[in-house]
Amino acid sequence: MHSAILPILIPLIAGILLLLAKHFGLKNQRILSVAMIIILIVISFLALPQVLQNNPVVYAVGGWQAPFGIVLVMDRLSILMIIITSLLALGALWYAIVSDTDKRGAHFHVLFHLQLYGLNGAFLTGDLFNLFVFFEILLLASYSLLLHGEGNGRTKAGLHYVVINLVGSTLFLFAVGTLYGILGTLNIADLAYKISILPSSDVGVVAAAGLLLLVVFGLKAAMFPFYLWLPGAYSKTSAPVAALFAIMTKVGIYAIIRVHGTIFSDNAGELANYYAPWVLNAGLITLIMATFGAMSAKELKNQIAYLVLASVSTLLISVGIHSVAAMSGAIYYMIHSTLIAGGFFLLSDIIVRSRGQIRGKLIKAPLFNNSVFIGSLFFLYAIAIASMPPLSGFFGKLMILFAAIDHPHAGMVLTVVLLSGLLSIVTLAKTGSQIFYDTDNSAEPIHAKITNKYFPPVLFLFIFAPLMVIFANPITEFTQNTAEMIFNTNAYIEAVLNISTETRQ
Amino acid sequence: MKKIKKILPHPVLSIALVFIWLLLNNTFSAGHCVLGIILAVLIPRFTSDFWPEEVCAKQPLTFLKFSGIVAYDILMANIAVSRLILGPNKNLKPAFFNLPLDIEHPLGISLLASTISLTPGTVSCDLSEDKTYLIVHGLSINNADQIIDEIKTRYEKPLMEVFKPC
Amino acid sequence: MLLPFLGAAIVAGVAQKNRIASAWGAGIVTALSIAILTNLAYVPFEGKTLIHSWNWIPSIGLTFAFRLDGLGLLFAYLILIIGLLVIVYARYYISSRDSMGRFYSYLLLFMGSMLGIVLSENILQLAVFWELTSLSSFLLISYWQHKPEGRDGAKMALTITGGGGLAMLAGILLLGHAAGSYTLSDILTAGDAIRSHALYTPIILLILLGVFTKSAQFPFHFWLPHAMAAPTPVSAYLHSATMVKAGIFLLARLYPALSGTEEWIVLVSTAGMITLLLGAFTALFKHDLKGLLAYSTISHLGLITLLFGFSTPLATVAAIFHIINHATFKASLFMVAGIIDHETGTRDMRRLGGLWSFMPHTATLAMIAASAMAGVPLLNGFLSKEMFFERTLIDETLLNFLSPIFATLAGAFAVAYSIRFIHNVFFNGQLKNLPKNPHEPPRFMKIPVDLLVVACFAVGTLPVFTVAPVLAIAVTGSLQAPLPEYSLALWHGFTLPLLMSFIAFFGGIFIYRQRKELFARYEKNISRIDARVPYNTILNALFDLADFITSGFNKESLQTMIAWTLAASFLAVFAGFSYGDSPLFGNRAFLSMDWISIAVASIFIIAIIATVLMHKSRLVSLISLGVAGLIVSLIFIKFSAPDLALTQLSVEVVTVILILLALYYLPQHTPKESSKFRIIRDLILSIGGGIGVFVLTLAVLSREYTTIGTYFLENALTGGGGTNVVNVILVDFRGFDTLGEITVLAIAGLGIFAMLQGLKLYAPSKDIHGFAWSADIYPSILQTLARLLLPLMLMVSVYIFLRGHNLPGGGFIAGLIASIALVVQYLANGIAWTRKRIPFSTHNLIVYGLLIAIATGLVSMTIGYPFLTSAFTHLNWPLIGEFEIASAIAFDLGVFLVVVGTTVMILVQLGKLSLNSHKTHKKKSKEGQN
Amino acid sequence: MEILLALIIAVLTAAGIFLILRARTYPVVLGLTLLAYGVNIFLFAMGRLHIDKAAILNNNAEYTDPLPQALVLTAIVIGFAMTAFVIALSLKAYSKFGNDHINGTPVKRKDK
Amino acid sequence: MLEFALSVAIGMIVVALFLNVYRLIAGPGMPDRILALDTLYINSIVLLILFGLYLGSTLYFEAALLIAVMGFVGTVALSKYLLRGDIIE
Amino acid sequence: MFEITLAILVLVGAFFTLVGSIGIVKLPDFFTRLHGPTKATTLGAGAILIASSIFFFVSSGELSLHEILITFFLFITAPISAHLMAKSALHLKQKENGNETTP
Ligand code: NA
Ligand code: NA
Question: Which ligand is nearest to the CA of C355?
């Protein structure tokens, strides 16, 4: 009965318990922290059958029915996002523990769980203002996590990230306010309904608010020209945080799918899908810029950050193509790119630690321990993130490209996506050979203390890439159905607005 | 006695708080009286650490009389100051002077300083480090000594009577 | 087919323990695959096609499907058999310094990918394996990681073939789209539909891009010679039978679907012809044995491509026949080159010579294989070359009469470089300062070559008994049509093709004799032309462009980020208004303006402008910000929002205190550093933003709306038990927001705590003017008042808290008032003194506040209601009278505690900084003092 | 009156934007505060302007729309948390960079 | 009658507000500005009370009280800043 | 009668309040400016608050005592803020005069 709120409450309670457990010792905190994530994963998977059977599950917080109270809407998409998030979180947390990152500042575990609270809330809420609140939660937690530990670069990146996001929050409020001022409601389903009967005299204002909202979500999703915060933030923070951040941009994408997809659906009259071309074009430009960014990167983590950006832009493009097939591909690709990006950041941390003073700089460095194994991992991650076969990214991209063929801009999409893929692989080949092949054999080899316990989280996050290929059939069936559901906004609206009132005392 | 001290560290304060509670709620209803009393007991207990030294207000009547004088002086002061403000600036004779203190109780000093600020043409500006004199600024000072005398007899004396060391 | 992949993993595992085991493992896996294949081979021979298919990604028509027909069988055999030979050969070739396990697992990976290509029934799946070959070949080519040329060659191969592969992927996507299916069986029968489809031209262009890059056709041929940096077994494998043949395979595979059009003929045959000539010509001039072989390979690939370009069934026969032959003789020649390299330490023909006396066995093998390559009768090369010549004669394409001439010329060069290979290495001259003393290699290194050479000979002499059946089914597989009539006889009589062979043979000898002069001319004129130069130029230019664009756009400057974001927002609003043709403003009546409001508004605007204009003098702008904050709350009061006003007031003061705390450490003035351009840009952005917001505000306010707000007014009392509707919304209707909001506060507190931990700042001991601070740390009069103020303000706080549900107030405002009461204590008495007297830790306050707030929600869950469902009741106590108890009050208490905890925690955390800092006065900044 | 309020919001926004585009942390903090004022008033105004119609239930016939007020309250609190965070962060940055430039590196002015 | 008096009074307070803002901007010293801000707070209380009288509404009281409290705290903090720089130490 | 009393109280209050603000503009230096707000404005505010108290008592028949509290609060805090401002001004002034001893 409460399955829709549990993914929000569990991390919140986890955060508070961890705050209580401040004096219980690091070991106990770690156990509690991991246990809570595992509970979250289990709970999310347990909710899955319910969602599959009864889609979407609507939960009226406080018993106040939509559109008046805040409702949570758990559908295929949101539960999927939660599952991805919690799996990613497990990998990131695992690495944070084995690498002792959690020791390097106060409240790591608390902030980590509160970040999940914000993320899961953002995925589940059916209310636009509540989405704002959860955005703020996840952002503030991410600000703190971003700054966790030391480093000048980190502070600068953090400052930029914080301020630009505060600007984003301001824009969010302007947009929400405008929508409320015209439509008089905050519930996403209700907004969609109100827009479907919008008098034509109000179209312009609503369109303006919608595009402003797109700027906000675009900022989160690191869409051009708002992505400038991303390379710094992702590359300068600690590895587990960067890994967890792999989901942050997806929140922006999710919000576009959820909010714009619902309220500016086919039913929106003059404004039906009007946002899609903007997303598509911005996505294409972002992809170009991301590819160039990765090519010009002089540092490993920076390069990976740009590659993450490239995967985000691929998602934007597929959202912009705006078809069931493209959406299905996008969802598949989202699972892939999130987990792989997360794992890649962890791996890059191992590489950076292994290379001693040289760290992530893409220059000649002495040989280091275990370089063959690390190199193999790098190769696997590289082909995963560059969306080469036989790993899941390729198939996600394939689905997107397949969907793109019917789009008027198919040529453009195919050209940009494929060229970017090629340049990514060229760049990664260059990087890989710089790090693992072109070693300075005259210098004393580096013996960094990378023990075997560093690798399981990296492998854990990687394993999904082949698994998703092997189980592509059921997974794509799921994504296909999810995509169909996303485009069937009427079902969503009916489910949300017709909730029974029996829960009220 | 000690028990009372523990329950009501500052009885006067508690009474004042009950009164303030009723003022805040704009009512003298029974319910609020009870609530007010509860708060008036709880809050001073909670904050007693912040006010460690005892306050022995000995002569409530003297204090009332003092208050009356001050109220009257405030009114007069305002008329005088208004005239000075609105009049030409050349009528002003601003100056600082030091007011030696005999009173030692901190609350007394504060009250004296406040009184000086609220009454004719003077503002207390600083308390010397050893708390032996106040630096006072006057708006129109012809004879500092005369003003000092007036302050000492009119305000400091009654205050010293009220705030004696316990 | 999956066996090699599995094998790769096993081999990688085994290799950790035993080098030899990995070779055995790879060999056994391959042999096993051959056995399985042979077991299934009856199907194609019966003229049938074996198809196995599983669903994979049905939504895009991707099935996991395999197809075994003649063509596939032929290629599979080539891949596996030559693979097995290479495995045996490599066992002795790979030195003990290199990891054998790695080598074999890469090799098996590659083998599997190749098999995947040739056995795919689904073209998307084919593309998957196609890219896999690019990737695994990258690993193989760069196997010797320490060699820069290996790395570069591998990268180049990957770039070209991978890129081509991606183009081909696009082509395949379009092809399936045009054919309506991604299944080969469907596509191969839909040739007419495809050829007449509007997308045919892009399809063929993209697919040929894949083919040409993979098969090293001009102008993409240049990667192949550089890939020779790979270990020789790799070259033997990749460049004889497999990698490069993948492109050819695709031509054969898609022949029924794509061929026959003018585009096909022009593109394929032109590329083939140029490649044929260029390869043959260049091969002669390469001093590196493997370089020679590489260009020879290019040339032969051109030949095969040209044959496919002819687009006739008989040409296809010739092409597929030559595929087989080339695979055998080229693999053996590469192995020979490897043996020579292995034994002498060099592959430079200028340093080699006279090896006959050292390794006659190897030399014999080389001579036979090279003869096959040159097209000497009785060897397999001769047969297919004859067929080729024959085809060129009846060529009806554009090249027409030129093709036999070019073909003969290429043949002559082939003869010449074959002679050079033999003569230069085994006979002519002496060895020159070689690193090693050459002798015959281990027996098992020669056995693969033996076998291949025997095959050359067998096919060359007895084609009908050896290759004919396989060739027949392969051709059928490719054509998807009945076999054309052809003859594999050795002797067709004195025909024109034979004459061409004759001319080529003697022409070749002639050319070789003229080599000295030719070499000189080549060195002088042509050798400088290196396709790598434009390749590198383009690639470097791309990387430079990337650098230029990235560093141009991403200056890591916050201002730039903000400027872009704001400009985009402005554009968004502007573009939004242009949708539909709705009017900018509605016609809702406005409230009338009164002069007091105008006056207060103008004061407000003055204060704001002052804040901006005087922002360089920081304290001054802070003070004018204070005015702005005050007037904001006056606005709230004026327009019926008392709760907002109270909140705004309290937040304002706390903010000012926070800023003051920070300002102590920061410079007191902002330096002038914006350029004129910056200022103008910023002014445009600000004024633009202002106008945008102005329009947006009025656009909304001039319109009527219906709102869900009325619901709250109607239900606040009955459903939420309070008359202050705003507060009921906060703690009940939208309590979930509030829970989030206090969590934000808590996170801010914790985050700031974590951030400032151990932070050291220079605490200025003097003020702006360079004078010492006042010595009176805690002004006594303030201390006295603060004592009075604390109970008073707490009283006010309780008052505001309790009335919140019904009148303006509530937990948040009450919390702020209580915090400010405590902050006054800190201001008056300092941290140490105050800290001692506060009986709780801020940390716990936050925890318990959150717990209380959540608990009220959880309680409702335990009794079967949704989270945060509220309940309230009216109690009637004697003396006190009736009063209300609502669960929402408990929630509000949680809010109160979190607010107090967080606010005090933040302020104290900032205040405490000076404790760290006073101790460590020394270091810090040039700018710090200012 | 609406025009006056729109003007106020516009001025706040413009001033806020100008300040957040400055190169030092301190004006950026001020700018964010002004922007927050602006957007809070904006959000509040979306419930339209009403005088003497506070949403305190008594026997009045008309009340203002209470929802935007509740939203603004939440926004104010969140804004406060964010401001506090930025202030602390600006101190951290100052300590790390040794100056208060927003990008960590003060640029020398060329034109003077 | 009362209404007229209130209008006049409000007018006077508005003039007072302008005067405060003048001093706040003109300075010259920081104490002048703090004084101006402090006075502005108190004048706002007066304005608010007058407005409440004008509308006959009691809802302005808490705001007035809070302005008084916050104005005081703000002034104390700013003054202490001038004195010590470090306001919480 | 009641109205007239109120009107006078309101006007007197406003007058004093205004005088305080005139003072801070007109008077020559900080210390003289300080006198206006400390006394006149405080008193003016007090007068108006009392007017309000009377008004609501008379118009609604219920006691309105909030205003007394504010007045009380203003009267205790105004001199303290004045003291602190003066103290800081004095502190700054001494420095400007090169740390000479007090007046
Ligand atoms: Na030679
Ligand atoms: Na401090």
Answer: 1
* Domain residue extents for chain E: 2-84
Report yes or no on C673 lying in a domain.
no
Q: Choose among D39, D47, D78: nearest Cβ to A174.
A: D39
The ipTM assigned to this model is: 0.94
DSSP conformation class of C591: P
**Distance in Å, alpha carbon of C604 to nearest chain E alpha carbon:** 9
At what angle are helices C887-919 and C842-862 packed, to 10 degrees? Answer: 160
Chain E residue numbers with beta carbons less than 8 Å from the beta carbon of F3 are 1-2
Distance CA(C44)–CA(C366), nearest Å, equals 34
Query: For the domain with range D2-48+63-97, which CATH number is right: 3.30.300, 1.10.287, 1.10.150, 1.10.3470?
Result: 1.10.287
Interatomic CA distance for residues C444 and C87, integer angstroms: 11
- Give contacts of C776 with chain F, Cβ < 8 Å: 87
Q: Cβ of E17 under 8 Å from any chain C Cβ?
A: yes
Domain positions in chain D: 2-48+63-97
State which of C461, C490, C513 marks the end of a domain.
C513
pLDDT at C598 over 70: yes
> What is the predicted pLDDT for the residue at A30?
94
Of all ligands present, the nearest one to the C-alpha of C660 is 2
How far apart CA C21 and CA C13 sit, in angstroms, is: 10
* D contact chains, 3+ CB pairs < 8 A: A, C, E
User: Tokens representing C877?
Assistant: 């106590």
* Region for C47 from its dihedrals, namely left if φ exceeds 0, alpha if ψ lies in -120 to 50, beta otherwise: left
Q: Measured between CA atoms, how close is D58 to chain A, in angstroms?
A: 22
Tell me which ligand sits closest to the C-alpha of residue C914.
2
Chains in touch with F (≥3 Cβ pairs < 8 A)? B, C, E
User: In this structure, what token pair is assigned to residue C243?
Assistant: 């990698």
C269 in a domain, yes or no?
yes
Model confidence over C88-146: pLDDT tens digits?
888 888 777 777 778 888 888 888 888 889 888 999 999 998 988 888 888 888 888 77
Contact E55 D56 (CB under 8 A): no
Q: Are the beta carbons of C744 and A296 separated by less than 8 Å?
A: no
Residue of D nearest to A163 (CA): D86
Give the number of other CB atoms < 10 A from CB of residue B6: 10
Contacts of A171 (CB under 8 A, 6+ apart): A212, A215, A216, A219, C565, C569
Q: Is D10 on the interface with A (CB under 8 A)?
A: no
Contacts of A310 by beta carbon, 8 Å cutoff, 6+ apart: A287, A290, A291, A294, A420, A424
Closest-CA residue in chain F for B111? F76
pLDDT tens for residues B29-64? 877 888 888 888 888 888 878 876 666 666 778 888
Give whole-number Cα distances, E87 to A215, C777, C778, E84, in Å. Answer: 40, 9, 10, 6
- Domain's final residue, options C470, C495, C513: C513
pLDDT of A78 strictly over 80: yes
Q: What is the pTM of this model?
A: 0.93
Closest Cβ–Cβ partner in D25, D38, D71 for A129:
D71
Q: In this complex, how many residue pairs, one in chain B and one in chain C, have their CB atoms less than 8 Å apart?
A: 66
Using a CB-CB cut-off of 8 Å, the residues of chain E touching C812 are none
Mean pLDDT, all residues of chain B:
82
Pairing status of strand B133-138 against strand B95-100 = antiparallel
A205 with C582: CB under 8 angstroms?
Answer: yes
Beta-carbon contacts below 8 Å between E and F: 153
Yes or no: domain B60-162 corresponds to CATH 3.30.70: yes
Please give the structure tokens belonging to residue A21: 């457990």
In eight-state DSSP terms, residue A228 is T
Between C929 and B62, whose confidence is greater? B62
Provide the residue range defining the domain that includes C777: 724-930
